[in-house]
C-alpha cells in the first residue's frame, strides 16, 4: 500500500476567519489530525480535482480494519454494480468522503481510513444506514473516482442533472408545445442498454405531451440546438411513454445521452390553445431581438386557408395580388389581430403556419366573401422583411412635429374605429419619444407643450372609453399639474370623476371650467345637467334599497334592500343619448378630424389598397 497521509492536515491550513460560516464549514471543523487518513493505491490522471458543485461518480467498498467487507457498490462484492453519483456541496454525503474525494484525480483509487465521527457515526449524520452497520467502528473506504464534471442541477432534489458534452448554438431553448428532433440512447446506471435511437431519423416528439420521460424532457428543456449532453434521471422522474413504453422495476436511474438535432418553435400565443403559431422555416437573426418592433412597416407573403378537408385557399398574395407582397404598418389595425400578433413573433425570412380562431381572424375585421362566418382559418405567412420605425435622432423640430401629426392622425383613426387600446399605444409612443425632444425657442416650446398636453388628453379619452376612470384621471392630472387652468383637461377629468361616482369632484371641475373659459360654458352646463341626472338616479336607487328601514315602530325589525319586485323597472334610468364629445368643440375625443377608414367588403380588396398605398410612399 502507498504511503498514508493525513488528509485533514493536508487540506486544512490556517485561514482567515470568514464573516459567516456555513453549516458545511462548521461540519468540517470536526476533521482533526488523525481522524481522516488517505492511502494512494492507484494514481489518477491529469492535474485537476473535484470542487464544490461538481458531480462525482465513484465506486466505494467499505471494510473493517481486519478486511471484512461491510458494504460495496461493486457487484463482485455483493453490490448492484452501479457507481454512486453525488454533487459536491448539494448531495448528502458522509463527512470523510465529502472531504476526501476532493483530494482525488480522475481514475484514482485510494483508501480512506476514517474515525466513526467522520462516517456514519457522526452526530446528526445526514446519511442513514441500517442498525447492523458498525457506526462506532473505525473503517476503511476503498474509493475509485471514475469521473467528475460540472453539471447543471435541473431538479431541486437532484433527480435530474445534465452534463454538457458539446455546446450548442444560440440561446433559444425548447418548451411546450415545441416540436423536437433528437438522437437519444438510454442506459441503466450499470451501463445496460435500454434503448438506442441513434440511426435513421431522429426521435420526434412534441414538448409537453409526455412522449418522453418527465426527467428527460426537463433536461432537454435546458438544451440549445446542436447541443450534446448526458442527462441523469432518477426513478421518480421516469414514466411510461412513447420513448420508454415500459419501465422495469428496480431501475434506480437512467442515463440518457442526447443530441438535440432540431426543434420547431410552436407558440400558444393566447395561452388557451386557440391561436397557434408553428414555425416551418427558420428565419435570420436571434429571437426576439430581431423580430419586428411596434410601428414597423412589414412585408409579407401569405396564403389563407379554411380548416376544411380540402384546406380551401381563400387568398394567396402570390396568385391574387399579382405576386406582390402585402405591406402594412403594425399597430394600426390594418390586418386581423391574430395575423399581426403572430407576424410580430417572426424573424425575417421565416415561414410560419398560423391557426387562428374567428374572434382573432375575421369576426372583428372585414371578412372576405369566400370565408364563412365564424370560420377558423390558417395562414401560411412568410415575413420577407420589415423597416424599423423612423428614428428622430438628428431630425429638426419641424420634421419631428410633421411625423407626430402623422402618427397622431393614425391614433385618431383608430379611436374613431373603436380600437382604443391601439389608439392609446400610438399616443403613448409619441409621449415616450417626447422625452428626447428639445425645443429651441419659445415658439417651438409653446407648440411642443400644446401637442404634449393634447396627447395626454387623448390617452385620457382612450382610458375613459375603456372604462378605466382612475387611469383617465391620472392622464388629465399630467396636464393640470403644469397648467392648472386647462379647460379641456378639467372637462375630461370631470367626465372621469362622474363615471367613477365621485360627483363632488366632477362638479368642482365643471364649475372651474366655466370660470376660466366662458366659451366652454355650454358644454360645462350640459355636463352639470348630466351629473345631476346621475346623482338623482343613485339617490333613487338608494331610497328603494333602504325603503321601510326607518318607517317601522320601535321594536319592529325591517330588512334593508327588501324592494317590491313589481316596481323594479323604475330603477332603470332612461337611456341618455346626449353625446358630449360631439357637442363639445373644445375637447377632441377622437381629437382632430382624420380621413375615414376605407369601407371595403373583401379582405383582398383592403390589402390590395394597402399595397397600392405603400408603393406611393
TrEMBL record:
<feature type="region of interest" description="Disordered">
    <location>
        <begin position="551"/>
        <end position="602"/>
    </location>
</feature>
<dbReference type="Pfam" id="PF00254">
    <property type="entry name" value="FKBP_C"/>
</dbReference>
<dbReference type="InterPro" id="IPR046357">
    <property type="entry name" value="PPIase_dom_sf"/>
</dbReference>
<feature type="domain" description="PPIase FKBP-type">
    <location>
        <begin position="177"/>
        <end position="264"/>
    </location>
</feature>
<keyword id="KW-0206">Cytoskeleton</keyword>
<dbReference type="InterPro" id="IPR013105">
    <property type="entry name" value="TPR_2"/>
</dbReference>
<keyword id="KW-0697">Rotamase</keyword>
<feature type="domain" description="PPIase FKBP-type">
    <location>
        <begin position="53"/>
        <end position="149"/>
    </location>
</feature>
<keyword id="KW-0493">Microtubule</keyword>
<feature type="repeat" description="TPR">
    <location>
        <begin position="487"/>
        <end position="520"/>
    </location>
</feature>
<keyword id="KW-0597">Phosphoprotein</keyword>
<comment type="similarity">
    <text>Belongs to the FKBP-type PPIase family.</text>
</comment>
<keyword id="KW-0963">Cytoplasm</keyword>
<dbReference type="InterPro" id="IPR001179">
    <property type="entry name" value="PPIase_FKBP_dom"/>
</dbReference>
<feature type="compositionally biased region" description="Basic and acidic residues">
    <location>
        <begin position="8"/>
        <end position="27"/>
    </location>
</feature>
<dbReference type="GO" id="GO:0005829">
    <property type="term" value="C:cytosol"/>
</dbReference>
<feature type="region of interest" description="Disordered">
    <location>
        <begin position="1"/>
        <end position="29"/>
    </location>
</feature>
<keyword id="KW-0496">Mitochondrion</keyword>
<dbReference type="GO" id="GO:0005739">
    <property type="term" value="C:mitochondrion"/>
</dbReference>
<keyword id="KW-0413">Isomerase</keyword>
<dbReference type="InterPro" id="IPR050754">
    <property type="entry name" value="FKBP4/5/8-like"/>
</dbReference>
<dbReference type="InterPro" id="IPR011990">
    <property type="entry name" value="TPR-like_helical_dom_sf"/>
</dbReference>
<dbReference type="GO" id="GO:0005634">
    <property type="term" value="C:nucleus"/>
</dbReference>
<keyword id="KW-0539">Nucleus</keyword>
<keyword id="KW-0007">Acetylation</keyword>
<dbReference type="Pfam" id="PF07719">
    <property type="entry name" value="TPR_2"/>
</dbReference>
<keyword id="KW-0488">Methylation</keyword>
<feature type="compositionally biased region" description="Basic and acidic residues">
    <location>
        <begin position="551"/>
        <end position="584"/>
    </location>
</feature>
<protein>
    <recommendedName>
        <fullName>peptidylprolyl isomerase</fullName>
        <ecNumber>5.2.1.8</ecNumber>
    </recommendedName>
</protein>
<dbReference type="GO" id="GO:0003755">
    <property type="term" value="F:peptidyl-prolyl cis-trans isomerase activity"/>
</dbReference>
<dbReference type="InterPro" id="IPR019734">
    <property type="entry name" value="TPR_rpt"/>
</dbReference>
<feature type="domain" description="PPIase FKBP-type">
    <location>
        <begin position="295"/>
        <end position="387"/>
    </location>
</feature>
<keyword id="KW-0802">TPR repeat</keyword>
<keyword id="KW-0677">Repeat</keyword>
<dbReference type="GO" id="GO:0005874">
    <property type="term" value="C:microtubule"/>
</dbReference>
Amino acid at each position: 500500500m502507498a504511503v498514508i497521509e493525513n488528509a485533514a492536515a493536508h487540506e486544512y491550513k490556517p485561514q482567515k476567519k470568514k464573516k459567516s460560516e456555513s453549516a458545511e464549514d462548521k461540519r468540517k471543523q470536526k476533521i482533526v489530525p488523525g481522524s481522516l487518513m488517505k492511502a494512494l493505491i492507484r494514481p489518477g490522471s491529469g492535474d485537476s480535482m473535484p470542487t464544490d458543485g461538481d458531480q462525482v461518480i465513484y465506486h466505494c467498498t467499505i471494510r473493517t480494519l481486519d478486511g471484512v467487507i461491510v458494504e460495496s457498490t461493486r457487484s463482485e462484492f455483493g453490490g448492484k454494480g452501479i457507481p454512486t453519483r453525488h454533487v459536491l456541496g448539494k448531495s448528502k454525503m458522509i463527512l470523510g468522503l465529502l472531504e476526501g474525494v476532493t483530494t482525488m484525480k480522475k481514475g484514482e483509487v485510494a483508501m480512506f481510513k476514517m474515525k466513526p465521527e467522520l462516517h456514519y457515526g457522526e452526530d446528526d449524520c445526514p446519511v442513514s444506514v441500517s442498525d447492523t452497520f458498525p457506526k462506532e467502528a473505525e473503517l476503511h473506504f476503498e474509493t475509485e473516482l471514475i469521473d467528475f464534471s460540472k453539471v447543471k442541477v435541473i431538479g431541486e432534489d437532484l433527480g435530474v442533472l445534465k452534463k454538457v458534452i458539446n455546446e450548442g448554438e444560440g440561446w433559444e431553448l425548447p418548451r411546450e408545445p415545441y416540436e423536437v428532433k433528437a438522437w437519444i440512447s438510454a442506459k441503466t446506471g450499470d451501463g445496460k442498454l435500454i434503448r438506442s435511437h441513434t440511426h435513421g431519423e431522429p426521435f420526434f416528439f412534441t414538448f409537453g405531451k409526455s412522449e418522453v420521460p418527465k426527467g428527460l424532457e426537463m433536461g432537454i428543456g435546458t438544451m440549445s440546438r446542436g447541443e450534446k449532453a448526458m442527462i441523469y434521471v432518477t426513478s421518480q422522474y421516469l414514466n411510461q411513454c412513447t420513448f420508454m413504453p415500459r419501465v422495469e422495476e428496480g431501475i434506480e436511474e437512467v442515463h440518457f445521452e442526447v443530441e438535440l438535432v432540431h426543434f420547431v418553435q410552436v407558440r400558444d400565443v393566447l395561452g388557451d390553445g386557440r391561436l397557434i403559431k408553428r414555425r416551418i422555416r427558420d428565419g435570420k437573426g436571434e429571437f426576439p431581438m430581431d423580430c419586428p418592433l411596434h410601428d414597423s412597416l412589414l412585408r409579407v407573403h401569405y396564403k389563407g386557408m379554411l380548416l376544411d378537408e380540402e384546406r380551401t385557399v381563400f387568398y394567396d398574395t402570390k396568385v391574387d395580388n399579382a405576386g406582390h407582397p402585402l405591406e402594412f404598418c403594425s399597430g394600426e389595425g390594418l390586418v386581423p389581430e391574430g395575423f399581426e400578433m403572430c407576424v410580430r413573433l417572426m424573424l425575417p425570412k421565416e415561414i410560419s403556419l398560423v391557426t387562428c380562431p374567428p374572434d382573432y381572424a375575421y369576426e372583428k375585421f372585414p371578412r372576405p366573401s369566400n370565408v364563412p362566418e365564424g370560420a377558423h382559418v390558417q395562414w401560411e405567412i412568410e415575413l420577407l422583411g420589415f423597416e424599423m420605425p423612423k428614428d428622430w435622432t438628428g431630425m429638426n423640430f419641424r420634421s419631428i412635429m410633421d411625423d407626430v401629426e402623422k402618427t397622431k392622425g393614425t391614433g385618431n383613426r383608430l379611436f374613431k374605429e373603436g380600437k382604443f387600446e391601439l389608439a392609446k399605444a400610438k399616443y403613448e409612443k409619441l409621449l415616450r419619444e417626447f422625452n428626447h425632444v428639445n425645443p429651441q425657442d419659445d415658439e417651438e416650446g409653446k407648440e411642443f407643450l400644446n401637442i404634449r398636453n393634447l396627447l395626454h388628453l387623448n390617452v385620457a379619452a382612450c382610458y375613459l372609453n375603456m372604462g378605466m376612470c382612475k387611469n383617465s384621471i391620472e392622464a388629465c392630472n399630467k396636464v393640470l399639474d403644469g397648467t392648472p387652468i386647462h379647460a379641456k383637461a378639467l372637462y375630461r377629468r370631470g367626465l372621469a370623476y362622474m363615471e367613477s361616482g365621485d360627483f363632488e369632484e366632477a362638479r368642482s371641475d365643471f364649475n372651474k371650467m366655466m370660470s376660466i373659459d366662458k366659451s366652454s360654458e355650454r358644454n360645462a352646463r350640459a355636463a352639470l345637467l348630466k351629473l345631476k341626472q346621475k346623482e338623482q338616479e343613485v339617490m333613487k336607487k338608494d331610497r328603494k334599497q333602504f325603503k321601510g328601514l326607518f318607517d317601522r315602530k320601535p321594536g319592529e325589525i325591517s330588512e334593508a334592500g327588501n324592494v317590491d319586485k313589481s316596481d323594479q323597472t323604475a330603477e332603470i334610468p332612461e337611456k341618455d343619448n346626449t353625446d358630449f364629445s360631439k357637442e363639445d368643440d373644445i375637447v377632441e375625443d377622437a381629437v382632430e378630424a382624420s380621413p375615414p377608414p376605407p369601407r371595403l367588403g373583401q379582405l383582398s380588396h383592403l390589402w390590395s389598397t394597402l399595397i397600392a398605398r405603400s408603393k406611393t410612399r
